[in-house]
Structure formats: C-alpha cells, structure tokens
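User: tokens in, sequence out, please.
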C-alpha cells in the first residue's frame, strides 16, 4: 500500500507501523513484511524471515464466514494445557529444516500442530466439518488456523487444489486456493 500511495516508509515509520500493527493483533505484523515465510516468536509478533525454496505446495483455505476471537478460545482451553499450545522447539526445528530443504509436504505435515483445536472444534461445528471435509477431499496437514475460524490444508498441485475446492462448493463457506510459492 505504501507503494500504491507513494509513501516513503523510512525505518522509523516501519517501526511505528509495526507497533500499531501489533496492537491490532499478534499476527498482523506478518502482513507488513515483504516475505512469504517467517518464524514467529513471542505472541507471534516477533518475526524472523525464513528463506524457503519454491518447491512448496498449494493451500486450500476455508473460511466458514464468522470470526473466532482468540481470547475466548484460550479461556476454553483447560489451564493445564495452555502451556502446550505451541509446536515444541524440536518439532519446529525439524519443520523449518524440512521446508528449507524443499522436502515434499508428506514429510513435514506431521510437524504441524494447533492445540487450540481442542478448545474450538467441539464448539464450532462448521469449523470441525470444514476440517473433516478438507481431509476427506485429500488435503494434507489440515489444521485450524490460529484460534479459527479458518481451516487450511495443503495440496500438491493447482489441479488437485481445484478438485478439493470444488468439493467444498456445496457449503456456504468462502473457499480459496492459493500458492505458497510467493
């Protein structure tokens, strides 16, 4: 947008914009980056750029049509499980190495993890249904995105993604096929 409106984003302006973005949501700063992959730490607002080869799959993204605020989802998670909401560091390291080496999706989807699904899926039948249908349609690594309500899954080609997306057209959801290539 800065280019569109011919705004010169100096380092100071970028820093200020990042601070504002963090207040809007933990994941918002990512969308200010001009990269496709980042390793997020903290509450998701500290970002380290990852250089990933272009051998990545496509993604089918399903939005059931309603938001799922993060606060209530965390509260629904049993207190003893809140510390386990994130991917372990060893799993994360293996995932990053696999991505950097351009490994096939089947070799790294097992490292994907979202503990928040335990709190959210029982309460939101549309989200759980979208997840089941994506899996049945052949998408790999199907997960809820963050606290929901979007769900995603990986496919190996654009053609496969179109087939999966068509199977979801019977439902009142927004379905997107996107490239992870950048």
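Assistant: Sequence out:
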């Amino acid at each position: 947008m800065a280019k569109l409106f011919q705004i010169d984003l100096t380092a100071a302006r970028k820093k200020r914009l990042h601070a504002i973005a963090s207040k809007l949501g933990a994941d918002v700063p990512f969308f200010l980056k001009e990269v496709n992959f980042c390793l997020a730490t903290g509450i998701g607002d500290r970002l380290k750029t990852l250089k990933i080869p272009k051998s990545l799959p496509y993604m089918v993204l399903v939005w059931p049509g309603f938001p799922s605020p993060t606060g209530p989802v965390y509260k629904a998670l049993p207190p003893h499980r809140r510390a386990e909401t994130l991917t372990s560091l060893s799993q994360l390291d293996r995932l990053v190495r696999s991505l950097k080496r351009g490994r096939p999706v089947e070799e790294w989807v097992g490292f994907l993890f979202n503990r928040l699904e335990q709190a959210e899926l029982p309460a939101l039948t549309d989200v759980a249904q979208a997840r089941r249908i994506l899996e049945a349609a052949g998408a790999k690594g199907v997960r809820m995105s963050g606290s929901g309500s979007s769900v995603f899954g990986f496919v190996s080609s654009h053609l496969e993604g179109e087939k999966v997306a068509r199977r979801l057209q019977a439902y009142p959801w927004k379905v997107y096929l996107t490239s992870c290539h950048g």
